[in-house]
Amino acid sequence: MNARLDSDYRAEALNALGDSEIDVLVIGGGVVGAGAALDAAARGLSVTMVEARDFAAGTSSRSSKLIHGGLRYLEQLDFWLVREALKERKLLLHKLAPHLVRPVSFLLPLQHRVWERAYIGAGVALYDTMGGARAVPMHRHVSRSRALELGPALREDAMIGAIRYFDAQVDDARHTMTIARTAARHGATVLTRTKVTGLLREGMSGQGPEAAACVTTQGPELMPDEHRGRVVGAQVTDVETGREYTVRARSVISATGVWTDEMNRMTGVDFPFHVRMSKGVHIMVPRERLDLDTGLAMRTEKSILFVIPWHQHWIIGTTDTDWELDKNHPSASHTDIRYILDHVNSILREPLTEDDIVGTYAGLRPLLAGAKDSDTTKLSREHAVAEPVPGLFVIAGGKYTTYRVMAADVVDAAVRDFGTAVAPSVTEHLPLVGAVGYQELAADVPGVAHRCGLPAETVEHLLGRYGSGIADLLALIEANPELAQPIPGAEEYVGAEAVYAATHEGALHLDDVLTRRTRISIEFADRGVEAAAHIAHLIAGPLGWDAETTEGEIARYRGRVEAELAANKAVTDEAANAARLIAVA
User: Fold this and answer.
1) I want to staple 255 with a disulfide (CB 3.0 to 4.6 A). Which of 28, 34, 166, 240 is the partner?
2) Which helix (H) or strand (E) is 492 found in, with range?
3) Is the separation of the CB atoms in 249 and 48 below 8 Å?
4) First CA to last CA across the chain, in angstroms?
């Protein structure tokens, strides 16, 4: 099947939407929804996935970008969660996505003699020896002098020594989009900017089995048992045109993350669990600003603050605070930024300032809710699957690293009553688009560069983002050599990447390219404003934009940047939220 998600693909998919009943309808295009679409399609089922915004537009593009077991979960005695995540880390590194996931080292400074080294060292040793441990190098205890060699930026009096350990990192948005493309390659229909506005219910209010009704997003307060008809599909609206579609399915999966409670209201029944939102904020600073040869992981009063190497930058975060405001556009406030700076500066020789920050982002974790007064740092990162009404299967909670397990679990539940044998999950053995052939190409970067006439550093950059899919970008460059030129204002990227986002990766808007297909919006001090116009004109042709539409896309992006910068200056969450919503993307 074709994994080219261009305008023709979308038009054909929409034209066929609702033509016949499908096996599984997946609601939500984050990492779990994309994973569920791939899992079901790989079993030979007919699948459609719909996403109201863009692939990974919510939580799945705003994580710490780590594939990890979670050291702090060991302290919470979540051994099963850690073991499961470490197994997935190994799969992603070596089989499923070696082009997107790579090892990263961290230095964990120690501040107390004897007991802390023994206590934390025992935890890290357990971390190394649990499932999937051999995927990365083993940890090492290091002296203070050795720690300062690895991290000259660190204050000498900030530690008595350290432990160096390894985990893995990923571009979360690219990874999620690649899962969706892999699902399309296996026959799934994957659509963005298609919003579910109601659920189709069969057998409601004494209706016969052929009758169905639509329960809209508002839904009733609570529906009595006799009115709880089976969910047999959904009403879907194409956000781009306003056209409505009726999609019938044998099972419907909701993988809507922090929007799970909205799905609850749509059903009109009480779910067996609820989701509570925890906001996590990160900042980006230039790589040269910190003299470090490794990442950092420092314990705070609540959790762990990371300093993560990210190409030419450092990602620093995260926070963990309650959030009850806008779910589409969570905002980083000045208070969040100061919290991060104050904590990281406690171990740095030369403190970072707000002027060093080139980007910020905020994401919402969907945590399975405990008591009302629970601290979000203690709520469960484990996942749960439920069937609150017949035919609707809801998955919530979990962590990014274990998306594949979550997807398999919810698909298992969704097909259990199909009446015919359905194959078990095979995604453990299924490399993502770009994985096959990547390692051979990565071992011959000079040769590839010589054959295609590009600098070796450009080839290395493209391989690390597209894997063996680099062939498609080289074809674009061969047809138009100008696309090999760096993008003005975002020179780490070349023009072919912007075009490819529109011709192969399902990008429909300028924001999709600047924020998720690339990470220009958080990697450059102007948040991508200079690059925006150039990219808009590159993708205007493939997306069929006229001059007015192109200028409108540029203006909307600039307005979004202004709103986010204003939010970063606000002291409270409420003020930051209000500032950000002035320009809703």
Assistant:
1) 28
2) strand 490-494
3) yes
4) 32
Residue 130 has a pLDDT of 80
CA distances from 263 to 235, 271, 545, 572 (A): 13, 9, 34, 29
Tokens in use for 161? Answer: 């020594």
C-alpha of 256 from chain center: 13
CA dist 63 to 55, 91, 231, 278, 403, Å?
14, 20, 32, 12, 13
Two structure tokens written together for 476:
């674009």
Token pair 């930051």 is at which residue? 576
Query: Are 263 and 27 a contacting pair, CB within 8 Å?
Result: yes
Token pair for 73: 């979960």
DSSP structure class, residue 505: B
- Written as six digits, the tokens of 530 are 């200079």
Contact (CB, 8 A) for 213 and 204: yes
Block means of pLDDT (10 residues each) for the chain, length 585 residues?
90 96 98 98 98 98 94 75 91 97 96 84 85 79 96 96 96 98 98 97 55 50 55 98 98 97 87 89 98 95 91 96 96 97 97 98 88 44 87 94 97 94 96 98 97 96 98 97 98 98 98 98 98 98 98 98 97 97 76
List, in order, residues 6 or more apart from 175 with CB less than 8 Å away.
31, 97, 100, 101, 432
Q: Nearest CA to 363 among 581, 89, 28, 65?
A: 65
182-194 in b/e form (b: 16+ CB < 10 A) is: bbbbbebbbbbbb
Q: What is the pLDDT of residue 368?
A: 87
Burial classification of residue 118, based on how many CB atoms lie within 10 Å of its CB (0-12 exposed, 13-18 middle, 19 or more buried):
exposed
Write out the E strands in 41-129.
47-50, 66-67, 101-110
Name the amino acid, one letter, at 545. Answer: W
